[in-house]
Structure formats: structure tokens, C-alpha cells
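Quick start: read one record
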Amino acid sequence: MFRLTPLVRNLIIINVVVFLAQNLLSNLNITEYLSLWSVNSPYFKPYQFFTYMFAHGSLTHIFFNMLAFASFAPVLESYWGDKKFLTFYLATGIGAGVIYAVVNLLLGTTDGGIMLGASGALYGILMAFGMVFPNLEIMLLFPPIPIKAKYMVFIMGFITYALDRSGTVAHLAHFGGAFVAFIIISIWRSQGKDRGW
């Protein structure tokens, strides 16, 4: 049983409500409005750097994102407090979207596809967890073995990459979220502010 902290619970509720709206009100094209389009697309709007992380593409997509979020985020919210955790969560999610968009722009990728989901912010959470609690042992579900948090981030990243047969997973956003998290935690540590506000 998960012990959800208040902010984590509210973020999960927001994600679920948005997902239900995407599917129950599909005639309103909610997914297209919330998703992050290529900056070269006529459908791109700057607000999408924020909204894309609350929309999801399928039941499996939202289920596994929220499962991982419920597993790791409450510990960080308890450790940092809700304001610092929310700042971190939004910064990693937005940062992941910006990195994804900028790299695709520099590479000239103009496939017109969209990106959506909380995975960028989630990989930020995983990176933070591994940095803040590096030696905390976590029991994996498959296989059921204990692993230190500092290794978990790399294993989960590798598994996500290895299992993606569709080519639709935005691995660059995952890296972006983890990279932004690494920068933020490093700055907080250098300032002696890696605890709550």
C-alpha cells in the first residue's frame, strides 16, 4: 500500500482527471491541445511545455507513470516539503520538454509528432531519489532483488530503452528530465539547500 503525501496525491488526481477528459471528451481534441508539438509545427504553443506532462497516450502509459510516481515521489515530498517538491517536479518536467524540443529543432526533426506524459518529470524524480538517497536499498518487482537507489536510475533507464520496440518513447525527454534533476540537485547541494525550504 502506498503512503501518498498530499501533493503527490493531488498530482496523481490531476493526471487521472486529464486522462479521463482526453478519452471521454475526445471530440474536443484535448490531447492535441495539451501535447507538446514540434516548435516548427503550426500547432505548437509555448504553454505546451507545461501541459504535455499531464496528458497521457494510453491506460498503460498513465498506469506505469503514476505507479512509479507513487512509489518514489512521496519520499521526496516528505524530505523536501511540498513547495520545494512542486518546484522541482515542474522544473524537471518543463526542462525535459525544452531539451526535447531544442535538440529536435537543432537536428532538424520536423516529423510533426507530439510528445506527452509525465515521464520527463518522473525521470527527474528517479534521478533525485538516486542522488538524495543513494544507498537506500529498494526491492525490485522483477526480478525480486534489492538494489541501491543510485543504480536504480540507470537500470530503469536501460530497461525503458531496451523494451521500446515501437520507437514512440521520447527517450530524449527521459534524459532531459534526469539531466535537469542532476543540475538542480547539484546546485542545491553547492548552496547547502538540498533539504526542505
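The chain has eight helices and four strands.
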